[in-house]
Design brief:
Blueprint: H1 5-39, H2 45-57
Helix pairs in contact: 1-2
Amino acid sequence: MLALSPLTGCWLLAGAGAAGGAYEYKHKDQLDKLEADFKAGKMTRDEYLKRKQEIEKGSLLY
């Protein structure tokens, strides 16, 4: 049973990494859509910057 412990830990870390990657992908997707809306003239620069800051605050990478 103890021999399986290191393997279990590795699987948990891999799962956490995948979940974190999916979370960051969501932020990247939100930023891309936000930029597209701004370029299309659907929002003002102030609205764009405020929303961008909100997205980046919730992200680890951006």
